[in-house]
Amino acid sequence: MRIVTRRVHRAFKFRFYPTAEQAHLLNRTFGCVRKVYNLALEARTTAWHQRRERVNYNATSAMLTGWKKTEDLAYLNEVSCVPLQQALRHLQGAFTAFFDKRAGYPRFKSKRKSRASAEFTPSAFRWNDGQLILAKMAEPLDIVWSRPLPEGPAPSTVTVSRDAAGRWWVSLLCQDTITPLPASGNVVGIDAGLHHLVTLSSGEKVANPRHERSDRDRLARAQRELARKDKGSANRAKARVRVARIHARIADRRRDTLHKLSTRLVRENQTLVIEDLAVRNMVKNHSLARAISDAGWRELRSMLEYKADWYGRELVVIDRWHPSSKTCSACGAIAEKMPLNVRSWTCPCEAAHDRDENAARNILAAGLAVTACGAGVRPQRDSSRTGRSAAKQETRG
Predict the structure, then answer these.
(1) Catalytic residue selected from 275, 294, 357, 394
(2) Is the pLDDT of residue 297 over 50?
(3) Looking at beta carbons, which pairs linking 377-382 to residues 24 or more positions away fall under 8 Å?
(4) How many of the other CB atoms lie within 10 Å of CB of 136?
(5) Is 354 a catalytic residue?
(6) With contact defined as beta carbons under 8 Å apart, do 236 and 229 qualify?
């Protein structure tokens, strides 16, 4: 049997430790990138509101040349021009997404809240035997190579960033060869929850680590210390970094858990069925918003999507309104109500159900119906009672 491999672009992210000169240059580059992005956004917004004129990337690129010649913005010449041009391309992409109604109107970058990053193309860096030298630098970056890069050509793009915790990262976009996993006859339905992170149709339950809750006291103490510091002081800056480090620890642990779980599910199953959860709407419930955000359901779905695509698996997403929790997986009867505090129930057909296991089995059955015959999984509207389709019970407080 001939194995078909795929060539994909993958970003490999590594931590690095810059020298004082490198850190100073990169910080100036971040500031210039932010300045150029905001200037171009202001120019495009003003042109539209005053003259109903659309300004494209070529026009903003010409503006950049003019800005560099002014006395106030002459410092833009001190950094590489490539990250500045890339900032204009990113702004063009943001406007394209806005016009296609895939995103909101582009917003100005903030020094405190926005991600500090700069993107370099091959004309602005040198790659030689695992050493990366960026434009206007004399020494290579001290990168911690936690895993090898794929063999092949040099990276096509290098993105340098600094997070709120003060850690420096470099992301290398490389071409990689993906070998699909051997075919498997296993199928699984996945029910996301809070008490258990996911419950599988096989009956397995994966515990929810609750990373944010485990560090909640530590985070609260650090935030109280931050609130006591005088604004603008050096002690306040140090306290802010301590808070950011706790947030980074929570995010890193959550991401590691989701990566391991998604990889295992994709390796073991040929078809995976999940629900299309409206997480943005669900977090409006202030009683559950913190727990839902800590679970990372949206991030888990994103990982399942691209890993299933890479390794030749099928991911089926059923309708969010499918009454998976209150439908009997044995006889198909739908219970009138199923409050969140009901974790197990018995159907009139005498079938006893664990709420989450039953939901996972119903999710699997609905997904298989979609793959087999394209059947819809949205329940029929009941005009005799509420006139609305059954809402997913888990979203209610």
Answers:
(1) 275
(2) yes
(3) 377/318, 377/319, 377/322, 378/319, 378/321, 378/322, 379/321, 379/322, 379/323, 379/334
(4) 13
(5) no
(6) yes
Which member of 119, 212, 294, 356 is catalytic? 356
State the catalytic residue, choosing from 191, 212, 357, 394. Answer: 191
- Note if 268 is an active site residue: no
The pair of three-digit structure tokens given for residue 57, joined into one six-digit string = 């990337």
- The two three-digit tokens of residue 139, written as one number: 């020494």
Task: Kindly report, residue by residue over 81-97, the tens digit of the pLDDT.
Answer: 999 999 999 999 999 99
Structure tokens at 177: 């060869």
> Full-prediction pTM beyond 0.90?
no
In 10 A of CB 208, how many CB atoms?
19
Pairing mode, strands 314-318 and 271-275: parallel
Segment 35-55, tens digit of pLDDT: 999 999 999 999 999 999 999
Strands 131-134 and 271-275: unpaired
Give the number of other CB atoms < 10 A from CB of residue 290: 13
Q: How far apart are CA 277 and CA 83, in angstroms?
A: 37
Give yes or no: 356 in active site: yes
Cβ neighbourhood burial of 251 (10 Å; 0-12, 13-18, 19+): middle
Q: How far is Cα 156 from Cα 135, in angstroms, rounded to an integer?
A: 15
The pLDDT of residue 252 is above 60: yes
Helices (H), the chain: 20-51, 57-69, 81-99, 211-214, 216-228, 234-268, 279-282, 289-295, 297-310, 355-373
